[in-house]
Specification:
Layout lengths: L2 H13 L2 H8 L3 H15 L4 E4 L2 E4 L1 H25 L5 E7 L1 H7 L1 H10 L3 E7 L2 H9 L5 E5 L7 E9 L1 E6 L14 E4 L5 H12 L6 E4 L3 H9 L4 E5 H5 L7 E5 L7 E8 L5 H25 L3
Parallel strand pairs: 3-4, 3-5, 8-9, 8-10
Antiparallel strand pairs: 1-2, 5-12, 6-12, 7-10, 7-11
Length: about 300
């Protein structure tokens, strides 16, 4: 079993069959079929269940797929690490929507200026989705809210957020027991801000009567402005929201009013593209701290 066999195997799985895998790999179909049979002979187990011309992963194939993806990813990273320490190529970055919308424009613009040979690709999702994509080798790094429990991931702190509850400006006060908003406006399960809001309800011994799930902060804030209910989101999101004056902000209790965003990547990998992004984020954080000190008179 060698890496070329694993690349053929992975391509057959990804493309759903030998024909499209052969096109992707620029090989003839017979060569791809032969490599798969040789791999099965080497391992001594069938990797696919064959139904006519269709292939389905056998149990052993499902086990091998996880190892194949990790081995191929590590091989690519090793090649990049020894060949060039200057960031170049494609950086596949994942981020939560709030981070992508508010925190990333500045750092990514700076990153592009520093490393013009890197092409950025960005995908959004909740931390669970992004961690899964990272471990599958679909992205190189991600920005997610803590906690990150996965042992196969390394992380550094990128940003610290202040999560707040927002309602329409004329919404009745929610800061006493029994006054929790009847409707909770949130992202899907897996969103850390949803978990924070659910914990806030639970700490008060209350539950919302209705949960509205949406896919964007603009949609959520639009519903909040319409008086539909309450949402929880990073306070930084409101800084760029033109209708923020029509909202009322409710801080969370001390101890629950901070949420850190982490830059994460697969443990043991040393991609120069990711290291470069970490350097940019650290530099941005230092400049932001200096600005805050000047504004508060501590510089």
């Amino acid at each position: 079993m060698d890496l070329s066999d694993l690349r053929v195997f992975s391509a057959v799985v990804a493309e759903g069959g030998v024909t499209r895998a052969a096109e992707r790999l620029h090989r003839v179909q017979s060569n791809v079929s032969t490599r798969i049979r040789q791999l099965e002979d080497d391992l001594g187990v069938p990797l696919f269940v064959r139904e006519g011309k269709r292939l389905h992963l056998a149990p052993a194939g499902r086990i091998l797929l996880d190892y194949a993806e990790r081995l191929l990813s590590l091989a690519d990273e090793a090649r990049a690490a020894v060949q060039d320490t200057v960031p170049r190529g494609v950086l596949r970055l994942g981020a939560m929507e709030s981070t992508a919308a508010v925190r990333l424009p500045g750092p990514l613009a700076d990153y592009s200026r520093r490393y013009p040979d890197v092409t950025l690709e960005l995908r959004t999702g909740n931390p669970t989705q992004l961690a899964t994509a990272l471990l599958a080798g679909e992205i190189d790094a991600a920005l997610v809210a803590e906690p990150v429990a996965e042992a196969r991931i390394d992380a550094v702190v990128a940003f610290e957020e202040e999560p707040v509850i927002v309602t329409a400006a004329d919404h009745p006060p929610i800061d006493h027991k029994g006054a929790a908003p009847k409707t909770m406006i949130v992202f899907e399960h897996g969103c850390p801000h949803r978990r924070c809001l659910e914990a806030w309800y639970a700490d008060r011994g209350e539950m919302p009567e209705r949960v509205v799930e949406l896919r964007s902060y603009h949609a959520m804030l639009g519903c909040v402005l319409a008086g539909m209910g309450a949402a929880l989101l990073p306070k930084s999101v409101l800084d760029s929201f033109p209708e923020s004056r029509r909202l009322r902000i409710w801080p969370l209790p001390p101890g629950n009013d901070r949420l850190r965003t982490l830059l994460v990547w697969r443990k043991g990998t040393t991609l120069s593209k990711v290291n470069g992004l970490a350097d940019v984020i650290r530099a941005e954080g230092g400049e932001a701290a200096q600005r805050e000190h000047k504004e508060t008179g501590f510089a």
